[in-house]
Amino acid sequence: MRNLILKLLLLLHVIFDVTITLIALGFYSPGWHFNLDSIFSTFNFSRYSYWTSPLDYVALSLLRQVSLLIAIIIVRRGKSEKLKKWMLIYDILGIIGYMIAVLKLLIFDETPENMKYPGVYMNTGSSIFLTFSLPFVIRKTLLNKKNGDVEYERLNENQENSTNVENGTTSNGTSNGTSNETATSTSTPSTSSSSESTENKKDEEEDDAVTKEEKEKRLPLSKHLWQIVKLCGKQWKWFTAAYSLLLIDCILNLIEPALYSQMMSTAIQMKSFDILKKACLVLAIVQFSEATCNTVRYICMQYAERLTARNIRIGLFKSILHQDISFFDENKTGQLMSRITHDSESISNSLPVYIETTTNNLFMLFGSAPIMFYYSWQLSISTFITFPITLLMTKYYGLFVEKLSEKENDATAVSNETVEEVLSAIRTVRSFAAEKMEHSRYTRNTDAWFKISIKSVIVGTFYNYFWATMWNIEDVVIYLYGGYLTLNGRMAPEALLTYVFYHWRLHAALNAFSSLFSDVMKTIGSSRKVIHIMNRHPELDYEVGTETPEVVGNIIFEDVEFAYPTRKTAKVLNGISLSIEPGKTIALVGPSGNGKSTLVSLIQQFYAPQSGQILLDGTPVQNIDHHHYHTKIALVAQEPTLFSGTIRENILYGIEDGTDEDMMRVSEMANVHEFVSKMEKGYDTKCGEKGVQMSGGQKQRIAIARALIRNPRVLILDEATSALDADSESMVQEALNRCARERTVVVIAHRLSTVRSADRIAVIEKGNVTEMGNHEELMKNESGLYYKLVSKQLGLDVKKEEKEEKPIVDFF
Ligand SMILES: Nc1ncnc2c1ncn2[C@@H]1O[C@H](COP(=O)(O)OP(=O)(O)OP(=O)(O)O)[C@@H](O)[C@H]1O
Asked: Where is this region: Disordered (predicted)?
């Protein structure tokens, strides 16, 4: 049905085009009298004259039909992709058609008699309309895509192709001649550069995780713009105030020239000083009102802008905080920081200003244009003759700028990410003497940004140059044609002067539009990811759970299958079933990389299983209220992260109504008080960024206290002591011993001696529980993995025990 309507539209366009062009030929006589002979006489080629014959309109119509026919043939041959690429030619044809039609009208105007023929207006109007509508009709009917997408695809393709060419590869990935030459002549550098480029490519693929997902869910331009407007629209009261004042300013601006020139010429003609004084008084009042309007408008605007920036930042941060953990596996901290600080600000800083500039300049445009037409319609249409070229150029430039700006922001985000990563791991960098390597990594990333931004500067400069050239041509046309009209007595000299005056204003308005459009596209580019993240609904929404059951601490895994979202094909858990009894200690052991920590991550609800379910006391964990759940289940990780606040703040983290008594109680239990009491500032001692001012053992004990303050029913210890020396280990284990009583404890440990006395031991192998029982039971199975692991380790441990003459610390 839709197809039929589209075909009908195409047919209607052709019928309308041919009919109106031919019928108009019948009206080439004064008044509305249709004359069939007039049509036939037009086709008398021997009498053709460019000054009087409407045959050019027929030629234009023919050109349209032929180009439409070519488009149909191309599509019928199944090459619509090619047609998409050639649409620029149709756009250019449209512009040429417009220019010919306008020129023809001006030429007809040279013989005043011609201007009495309605056919002239019919032909000019229909030619302009039909040549412009042709590309639109082709896009809508023959190419089953929206305008924007077609151009996006073409630009993407062009850019990808150009990137491939730059990289020395063709689109199918093979090396082109130049790179082959390099490869043969200097094999080592080329190998390293190719491996570097492969690495870079891999990096880019990883870095662009948001980009890939975002591309899939990319909003159409109009919807995206609407989202930005909605973000800014929350401050509509301030913006309305600002725009109302702007409107007053615009009106004053528009009437100013006409008013002054009127008053001044009256004063000069009447030689009256009184009128001159009045004119100056009016001028002073108007200018004072303008200045006041502008000041108040500025305040309103700035307030609204900053409020918008605040809201976008907070909204974006909130949205990031709500994302599932897999989102953070895919997106790097530095890049997200860049979105919050840089990209979000570009929305609030620019859009309101764009609206302001648009209003101002639209007003000037629609205000000045009728006045210009009033003074001379001939001069006006000759002024606007190059307008469509500028529009077309602006459209393509805008699309290019959007793409480029998105890339520029990505590049900025990547180099920010490097800074963040290096600074947060500066000790590792120093101890591996990797300063030079990191310096060159940052240089490489910054160079990538530099290349893109230089590209944008070069293209922008050419675009501005193009605009300036267009305007210079227009200026010459106005002076030449305007002078010609004045010399012929068809325009008064004052009218020409006033016209030129308004033309400058129009020039300024259109000039502002030219940079405005590219700026808007830049903002759209940088806002893409911000909007994407703000709209992103986490796959695992922690806010959906509402139940707050009493928790005893029985955890059951029912046939749980799981693969990490970043590696969907690599299953880590293969239908695991496991019951962790309340109040008991279960140890998870097994070879490295077999899924122990993954099990803990699932208990923590960092990820959701692909199938099966996890129950806490019979309730599916995802149904339990997030806050309630995490007061009942607490984790002490292998490398606990402390925040940069004081020890007090770290222990009471996330507990809004925590008291000093609570803190002291858990500090005693976790052996924190023992070292804090020796510190000068006690619990007010700062921990440093990520707890850098604390020792490993102190960090662990603060982390245990932080877990215990929630009085959890389930305590998860993920290799909580593996990184510690013997002294710290005994302190931490003593603390853990105390806390483990009457709680369900899930412990992961590689040192089998530490799990020997757990109530149950689950051997996790290739994402499954392969053995289950206590130490003695499992040791009976000599062919089992546990037996092998223990014997292997006991061999070492026995020797150690013999040497030290005491068993190694066993905290259960
Ligand atoms: N965030 C992640 N994204 C993708 N894959 C991951 C992620 N974390 C772990 N993996 C992969 O999942 C598998 C299981 O890892 P897991 O950390 O659960 O093993 P583990 O048994 O705890 O090992 P270890 O004893 O060495 O800590 C590994 O192959 C690992 O590479």
From this structure: 155-215
Distance, CA of 546 to CA of 569 (rounded, Å): 32
Confidence of residue 192 (pLDDT cuts 50, 70, 90): very low
Number of the ligand 1 atom closest to the C-alpha atom of 588:
21
Which amino acid type is present at position 110?
E
Residues 574 and 601 occupy one common structural domain: yes
pLDDT at residue 427, rounded to an integer: 64
Centre a 10 Å sphere on the Cβ of residue 663 and count the other Cβ atoms it contains: 22
Closest ligand 1 atom number to CA of residue 590? 21
Structure tokens at 645: 């606040």
For the chain, the domain total comes to 3
Give the pLDDT confidence of 64-99 residue by residue, as tens digits. Answer: 899 888 888 888 888 878 888 788 888 888 888 888
How many angstroms separate the alpha carbon of residue 639 from the centre of ligand 1?
Answer: 15
Residue 2 CA to ligand 1 center (angstroms) comes to 52
Cβ < 6 A, ligand 1 pocket: 329, 564, 566-567, 572, 592-598
* Count of beta carbons in the 10 Å neighbourhood of residue 265: 11
Are residues 129 and 275 both part of a single domain? no
Among protein residues, the one with the nearest Cα to ligand 1's atom 10 is: 564
Name the residue of 327, 330, 572 whose CB sits within 8 Å of the most ligand 1 atoms, as the mutation to test its pocket: 572
- The residue contributing the CA closest to ligand 1 atom 20 is 593
The pLDDT-based confidence of 157 (bands split at 50, 70, 90) is very low
CATH of the domain at 358: 1.20.1560.10
- Residue-wise pLDDT for 248-260, tens only, equals 887 887 777 667 7
Identify the residue whose C-alpha is closest to ligand 1 atom 18.
595
- Angstrom distance (rounded) from CA 414 to CA 800: 49
User: So what's the pLDDT on residue 644?
Assistant: 78
For tokens 């105390």, the residue is 738
Rg of the chain over Cα atoms, rounded to whole angstroms, equals: 38
Find the farthest-apart pair of alpha carbons in the chain and give their distance in angstroms, rounded.
124
Ligand 1 atom 29: residue of nearest CA: 593
**Domain residue limits at 95:** 1-29+51-154
Q: Whose CA is nearest to atom 24 of ligand 1?
A: 592
- Rounded Cα distance between 741 and 92, Å, is 81
Q: Residue 95's pLDDT is what?
A: 85
CA distance linking residue 411 with residue 391, whole number of Å: 30
3-state secondary structure of 490: coil
Among protein residues, the one whose CA lies closest to atom 2 of ligand 1:
564
In a shared domain, residues 103 and 139: yes
Contacts by residues 298-301 (CB-CB < 8 Å, ≥ 24 positions apart): 300/238, 300/239, 300/241, 300/242, 300/245, 301/238, 301/239, 301/242, 301/352, 301/353, 301/356
> Residue 602's domain is classified under what CATH number?
3.40.50.300
In terms of domains, do 247 and 354 share one? yes
pLDDT at site 556: 92
Kindly report the protein residue whose alpha carbon is nearest to atom 26 of ligand 1: 592
Taking the C-alpha atoms of residue 405 and residue 459, their distance in angstroms, rounded to an integer, is: 12
Is the separation of the CB atoms in 104 and 56 below 8 Å? yes
Q: What is the pLDDT of residues 703-752, one digit of tens each?
A: 888 888 888 889 888 876 665 566 666 766 766 776 777 788 898 876 66
* 571 Cα–ligand 1 center, Å: 11
More confident residue, 287 or 427: 287
Over residues 672-687, the mean pLDDT reads 85
Mean pLDDT of the chain: 78
Q: Is the pLDDT of residue 134 over 70?
A: yes
Give this prediction's pTM: 0.61
For residues 534 and 622, membership in a common domain is answered with: no
Per-residue pLDDT for 247 more than 80? yes
Distance 746 CA to ligand 1 centre (A): 17
First to last CA, the chain: 75
CA–CA gap between residue 666 and residue 405 (Å, rounded) = 52
Q: Which two tokens stand for residue 167?
A: 């990289």
